[in-house]
Amino acid sequence: MQVISNPTQDEIKSAAKSIKNGHLVSFPTETVYGLGADATSEKAVGKIYVAKGRPRNHPVIVHISSRKLLENWAREIPEYAIRLGNAYWPGPMTLILKRNSRALNFITGGQESVGLRVPNHQVALALTREFEKLGGFGIAAPSANRFGSVSPTTARAVEEELGKFFGSEDLILDDGQCEIGVESSIIDCTQVNPVLLRPGAITKEMIEEVTGLKVSLKTDESEIRASGLLDSHYAPKAKVILGLSAQPGDGFIALDQILTPIGSIRLASPASIEDYARDLYGALRMGDQLGLNKIYVVEPEGPGLAIAIRDRLGKASWGTRS
Ligand code: TXA
Ligand code: MG
């Protein structure tokens, strides 16, 4: 495995060739780092499942460079999905659409739908474009972490998570820290009205504004495919506990105006909700690196990205494992 820092256009081109040749390429997006493979190759996508230790019936998102390429993967695309694509792509949004015959079971987890996203990141977009120039149709990419664990927001974190599972010709493209830090909003567009499956930077209100439709929530995305398979998701090794009562030696994460409980180890002090989202996963990872047993996290209040943060913390937290 090779790490390429601040990849040039030529290096991105050659990374696209690697994907075409069936190798894995981890790449940055505006949300988290993805683990990419040719979405039409069962063998290449199989490597993602092995590297992540992910159950085979769990679907992966296909990344494309433009809304205009949706028809390559989906059929009967509703008008409201087109509106969403026009408004928020490239961006932190994944649309679930009825699949067409290109989206095979190893992409959809055997479901009749396929997840598609146009990422808003210079490297990710250049990579999908170069891949399409080579005749590729899309890059399958889940977050580049072991299944159930915290998504990586830096190339370093990808290396720590998956380094030992990469082959010698696989690559990591390093372009610094991800801007948003929590995964894309996932919107099910196979129903009459949109359903928000996973909250992210594109909020329910933003979806309603563009579509003029009432959006319902179903925030337990793991239930769709993987219910009961895992104790938790988005979780570090340390126990994540929601609240303030950290004891000496415990990790602590909260907005900067909240004081650190005496003796606890402050892992992050974000000044805003945006900073909170961007720094959360790195802070949880830091807790693991320090070998902490418990990390106390004070959830941010309010709408918008705070909803996405609370969603992930709910899943990561020990007390609320389902
Ligand atoms: O921000 C993101 O979305 C990142 C970056 C790399 O793009 N990707 C990401 O992928 O978070 P992943 O696989 O870690 O999470 C995608 C979620 C999974 O929980 C999966 O179950 C769901 O999307 N998903 C994918 N295709 C689906 C489908 N056809 N129907 C329902 N859920 C689907
Ligand atoms: Mg993931």
N/C terminus separation:
36 Å
N-to-C order of helices and strands: EHEEHEHEHEHEHEEEHEHEEEHEH
The residue-averaged pLDDT reads: 94
Name every ligand kind in the structure: threonylcarbamoyladenylate, magnesium ion
| Side-by-side strand order of the widest sheet | 1-8-2-3-7-4-6-5-9-10-11
Report the β-strand fraction as a percent range: 15-25%
Task: Quickly describe the structure.
The protein is of the alpha/beta class.
Protein architecture, described:
The protein is α/β, with parallel strands linked by helices and 322 residues long. Helix content is 31%, strand content 18%. The structure holds threonylcarbamoyladenylate and magnesium ion. Residues 29, 31-32, 34, 58-61, 94, 96, 108, 111, 113-115, 117, 119, 141-143, 183-184, 186, 221, 224-225 line the site of threonylcarbamoyladenylate.
Properties at a glance:
binds threonylcarbamoyladenylate; single chain; 18% strand; alpha/beta; 4-stranded parallel β-sheet; 322 residues; 31% helix
List the helices and strands and how they pair.
Layout: E1 2-5, H1 9-20, E2 25-27, E3 34-38, H2 42-52, E4 61-63, H3 79-88, E5 93-98, H4 105-108, E6 113-117, H5 122-133, E7 139-140, H6 155-162, E8 171-174, E9 185-188, E10 195-198, H7 204-211, E11 216-217, H8 222-226, E12 239-242, E13 251-253, E14 265-268, H9 273-289, E15 294-297, H10 305-316
Parallel strand pairs: 1-8, 2-8, 4-6, 5-9, 10-11, 12-15, 13-14, 13-15
Antiparallel strand pairs: 2-3, 3-7, 4-7, 5-6, 9-10
Bound molecules: threonylcarbamoyladenylate and magnesium ion.
Magnesium ion binds next to loops.
